[in-house]
Amino acid sequence: MRYRKLGRTGAEVGIIGLGAEYLEFVSRETVVSVVDEAVARGVNYIDLFMSSPDVRDNFGIALQNRRHRVMIAGHLGAALKHGQYCRSRDKTVSTEFFTDLLTRLQTDYIDVLMLHFLDEPDDYKVVFGSGGLLDLALKLKKEGKARLIGMSGHRVPVALDAVNSGRIDVLMFPVNPAFDALPGELTLEAAKQGVTRDRLGPTRKELYQACAVRGVGLVAMKPYGGGVLFSSANPSSIVLTPVQCLNYALSQPGVSTVLPGCKNAAEMKAALAFLEASDEEKDYSAISDSSLWKLKGNCVYCNHCLPCPVGIDIGMTIRLADTAGYRLDEAAVAYYEALPVKASECNECGECVERCPFGVDIIASMNRAVAVFGK
Ligand code: SF4
Ligand code: SF4
């Protein structure tokens, strides 16, 4: 493993970390095998944003007797409602889920306490304002239950405000060639006001530069764009390997570590192959900004759009519809059959749409799933 400083914090983090997003609904044995592979190869940064009890318990078991070897990023403001992930800005609810995280991880501190999923200016004001979640995070830090304060988000303007505020040590932000192909950030507010592309706000590169200049450790998430960059069926003409995607993220200014989402030990190994890859294998120069533009609006299956009032697992539903679009096989049908609530239950309320940071037309995706699977 090679290590980099996590911004001005002085902590040394392995350039390859682990994002736990795809380990939420797998067996405990799988989680343990991924952590075994990761820790043995020097991975020392794991992000665990999920709020469901099983995955927290599984990581607690996987990290038994080696908790001290990894930095854990846990999220303040990720909660559960009716069994589904949701965002919360309620301090009581957030404290309850933070305490639950410590208990289930069998630890008494979190290394990086992330203010979870902050994208909109109004939300930023609430979370960073007096009595908001940032104050709660600082209190937990004072009590020794958190060591560093971070923030996770997907949109440049709010992330840049947070970085420039001097109040966060770490920023977790998506870094991949598809998203970076966008010339600037179009916020929901700006879109409503009809802002044109030549009047777009600061670019993603400017955000990365600001992290580098201000010493905010930049943690790159979604380096594979949800896997869409690997498929020849993706809307761009470019197919990349995990090693190329990881190299792209690690080549951006300010990036300390990149967190591939791995759903088994083989995928962890594939990511760690970066450490032995040749320069030719790492070369991503084939990417073309203009063609990758077309990836905007693609689902990366993160489920940040939840909760859905009728209980649809939106990320999984779109993932299965996408997979079936390439190859409709028995496995995709069986997975879909097992979903407790089908896309046909969508009442087009639109609650999920504004929460999606990636501009996905979710209602159209639900209709597509119904067309593919018949329900
Ligand atoms: S629709 Fe958007 S928020 Fe929901 S899973 Fe897809 S990318 Fe994530
Ligand atoms: S639009 Fe459909 S998928 Fe989205 S929250 Fe409403 S019911 Fe759920």
Overall description:
The chain has 375 residues and is of the alpha/beta class. The chain has two domains: 3-292, NADP-dependent oxidoreductase domain (TIM Barrel, Alpha-Beta Barrel); 314-373, no CATH class. Helices cover 39% and strands 14% of the residues. Mean pLDDT is 87; it is low at 183-192, 194-199 and 289-293.
CATH topology of the largest domain: TIM Barrel
Counting DSSP E segments of at least 2 residues, the number of strands comes to 12
Task: Compute the number of structural domains.
Answer: 2
- Going by CATH, the architecture of the largest domain would be Alpha-Beta Barrel
Q: How do the helices and strands follow one another from N- to C-terminus?
A: EEEHEHEEEHEHHEHEHHHEHEHHHHHH
- The span between the termini is 47 Å
The CATH superfamily of the largest domain is known as NADP-dependent oxidoreductase domain
Average pLDDT metric = 87
Radius of gyration: 20 Å
Bound molecules: iron/sulfur cluster
CATH class of the largest domain: Alpha Beta
Helix content: 25-40%
Secondary structure layout plus pairing:
Blueprint: E1 3-5, E2 12-14, E3 18-19, H1 28-40, E4 45-48, H2 53-62, E5 71-76, E6 78-81, E7 84-87, H3 91-105, E8 110-115, H4 121-128, H5 133-142, E9 146-152, H6 156-165, E10 170-174, H7 177-180, H8 188-192, H9 204-214, E11 217-221, H10 242-250, E12 255-259, H11 265-272, H12 279-282, H13 289-292, H14 314-326, H15 330-338, H16 362-373
Helix pairs in contact: 1-2, 1-11, 2-3, 6-9, 14-15, 14-16
The chain binds iron/sulfur cluster (2 copies).
